[in-house]
Amino acid sequence: MTIQNFENNRAFTHGEAVKVHFFRRNGELILAEDTYFHLMSSMRRMRMEIPMNYTLEYFTFMLNSLGNTAQNGIHQLMVFPIMENGKKVITHHEHFLAIKDICDIQKTVVLDIQKEITVNTHFLSNIRTYSPENCYAQVYAVENDLDDVILLNPNKKIARTIHGNLLLLKGEELRVVKPSEGAYLSPLMESFITHLHKKKLATITEAEIAPFETQQAEEILLISDELGIMSVNKIRAKSFENNRFTDLLEDWKQSFGNDKV
Predict the structure, then answer these.
(1) Which of 168, 165, 173 is nearest to 227 (CA)?
(2) N or C: which end of the chain has fewer CB within 10 A?
(3) Where are the alpha helices (DSSP H) in the chain?
(4) DSSP strand pairing (73-84 vs 228-235)
(5) Which domains does the chain have, with CATH numbers?
(6) Number of H-type helices and E-type strands within the chain
């Protein structure tokens, strides 16, 4: 890309972009409609003009035509404006990450709480757009040998991590952070907790969650639309198992079967 191209790319010059993630499982897209509506909502929040051809059918055909050989993975779709003849024109870029089954735990991770900066709680905090907080936290994680970092909001409650949202399991209660606290909106997480609620496999509570509550949880899951599902192995001095979450994820996985989009 030339310097002139960079100057016309408002994702590069202004951070004016949104990202969503489509999920491929056993060669087929799943939750595509949920992701599509999440994309439309994210673009509206960023005051982007939605092109007429941006339909669910358009993105489904595009993603299925890319020829990815991997049967399982995540399509990261970034939508952003470029300047052409003084006007904004919406375009997009796709990147594919091959992973294991999206419904499986991809790996275990070690986290800690980062208190030097906070995440806002307004409506732009719920979508994936440019985030200097993430840039800072990623460097902090590397410097401290962490896989991810827990970010707090101005009220010192948990907002999210760099990559996703935390789910805390204790007894039969599954506690998730309310979107109003700065958590990401996540089609993947919404599908999981909706399944658990419908089958009465856990009592779902959307709440304000204080950092110390992580030390009281029995198991903690990190759900990330961009990287998949991760089991939290350790936060500070507390270590966690993932036996019950493994069973819950297996039950959720069976609900997809071999259905296509």
Answers:
(1) 165
(2) N
(3) 3-8, 10-14, 32-45, 56-64, 132-143, 187-198, 243-254
(4) unpaired
(5) 10-98 (3.30.470.10), 105-256 (3.20.10.10)
(6) 7, 13
Residue 88, strand partner residues: 83
- Residue 169 · residue 193 · CB < 8 Å: no
Q: pLDDT tens digits for 131-166?
A: 999 999 999 999 999 999 999 999 999 999 999 999
Q: Are strands 105-118 and 228-235 parallel, antiparallel or unpaired?
A: parallel
d(CA 123, CA 15): 17
Is 72:25 a contact under the CB 8 Å cutoff?
yes
The amino acid that residue 252 corresponds to is W
Q: What is the pLDDT of residues 125-134, one digit of tens each?
A: 999 999 999 9
Residue 81 is which amino acid?
P
168 contacts 144 by C-beta, under 8 angstroms = no
Amino acid in the structure at residue 237: A
- Round to whole Å and give the CA distance between 123 and 179: 8
Q: Do 225 and 184 touch, CB atoms closer than 8 A?
A: yes
Q: Are 158 and 181 in contact (CB under 8 A)?
A: yes
Tokens of 145: 């040998």
Q: Which two tokens mark 195?
A: 């399944």
Structure tokens at 39: 């994309």
pLDDT in tens, 226-243: 999 999 999 998 999 999
Amino acid identity of residue 238, one-letter, is K
Q: How is residue 30 written in tokens?
A: 């799943």
Q: Which residue in 190, 185, 257, 187 sits closest to 32, CA to CA? A: 187
Count of all residues that appear for the chain in the document: 261
